[in-house]
Amino acid sequence: MVQDAKRSHMETKRMVEKDPPLAKDDLILITGAGGFIAGNLVKYFRDKGFTRIRAVDKKPLYDWYIRVPGVENLCLDLSIEENCRRACEGAVEVYNLAADMGGMGFIERYRVECLRSILINTHMMESAYRAGARRYFFSSSACAYNVLLQQDPNVRALKESDAYPAMAERGYGWEKLISEQFCQEYWAERGLKTFIARFHNVYGPYGTWDGGREKAPAAICRKVIEAIDKNNLRITIWGDGTQTRSFMFIDDCLKGIDMIMHCDELIATPINLGSSELVSINELVSKVEAIAGVKLKREYDLNAPRGVAGRNSDNTFIKKVLNWEPSTPLDQGLRITYNWIKEQYYARKRGRRVVE
Ligand code: NAD
């Protein structure tokens, strides 16, 4: 409550000056562009006709999931301030999606790595401010929410105020929450227009599907494809399968980022960006089985990381402000994702280099 009161004080303190609409040749900087969401975001802006996009990631170029022609691609480690300065030179809008992250298997095991992403946002925000960027986007997460509110599979959906009193997910969630604070204070104190979307699980083509950082939808698609390919019709599910989540298709995520970033009402105001279609992991497996036309014997690994018992996105606020919410049905998005992963799986089997 104290937190909310403080924040609304900060937000009303500053008058919002109108800035000119983004021109097609204004420089857009997108970080984490070798990864899933930012890679797709580069393509999204390119398809919208923006001609000057700078894409940055620490991975070597050959490891980027998507490389869009005509884009300036830079390999820089953004936990180093000097590199953030270089990245931000001349940028009008900055989309910071770089972070060391992955699915539950990664964020429960590598909390230090997750926490260290604080360096990226800290240096990026200062560099964007110094470079005179007009707008700054930060990709926060539903992991910033109080875990005590997520102990039951039949959860009430999380609304924006549920992040406080703070009890975020250890490591990853706390990094996101502190970075949100940076966004809010840079606006309050220095007038940088910042935007904070709390993503709820995003899935779709060009996402990680193997190697330990993949999230549930991609992991389940891969396991089903593998089971069919190896004619070993079993699947191992992490936890007891009753844990619930909502999953947002990538196209909704991209549209949401664009709308949030260009809505002055949302300056320095965290907002949910997620689907509100709640499913259990067992239901998710059934959906993928239906797409693949197979039934597998389920085995439950009760020692595997399972995350909170339930989590869903309350979309009241986004519907009110943007008159929109992510709405691609899970069945539709999953089918597209399944087919893409299947293609990747068999391409790799034929010896081709693919997104992992
Ligand atoms: P991703 O792992 O595919 O992409 C992140 C990219 O950041 C990677 O390519 C990585 O190499 C890069 N990166 C990491 N450290 C870096 C550094 N020091 N310098 C430069 N680049 C660096 O992840 P994603 O799913 O595309 O997630 C993008 C953002 O959205 C992240 O901030 C993530 O926390 C957030 N988010 C994602 C989800 C989701 O479901 N995918 C959910 C909530 C929040």
Give a description of the structure:
- Helix content is 40%, strand content 15%.
- The chain is an alpha/beta fold and 356 residues long.
- It has two domains: 2-203 and 247-273, NAD(P)-binding Rossmann-like Domain (Rossmann fold); 216-246 and 277-314 and 329-349, UDP-galactose 4-epimerase, domain 1 (Alpha-Beta Complex), CATH 3.90.25.
- The strands form four sheets. A seven-stranded parallel β-sheet has the order 3-2-1-4-5-6-11, with helices on both faces.
- α1 (2-13) runs parallel beside α7 (172-190).
- The longest helix is centred in the C-terminal third of the chain and has 20 residues, at 330-349.
- It starts with a helix and ends in a 7-residue tail after the last helix.
- 46% of the residues are buried.
- The model has no long low-confidence stretch (mean pLDDT 93).
- The chain binds nicotinamide-adenine-dinucleotide.
SSE layout:
Elements: H1 2-13, E1 28-31, H2 36-47, E2 53-57, E3 72-75, H3 81-88, E4 93-96, H4 104-109, H5 111-116, H6 118-131, E5 135-141, H7 172-190, E6 193-199, E7 202-203, H8 216-229, E8 234-238, E9 244-246, E10 248-249, H9 250-261, E11 271-273, E12 278-280, H10 281-292, E13 297-301, H11 316-322, H12 330-349
Parallel strand pairs: 1-2, 1-4, 2-3, 4-5, 5-6, 6-11, 7-10, 8-13
Antiparallel strand pairs: 9-12
Helix pairs in contact: 1-7, 3-6, 6-7, 8-10, 8-12, 10-12
This protein binds nicotinamide-adenine-dinucleotide.
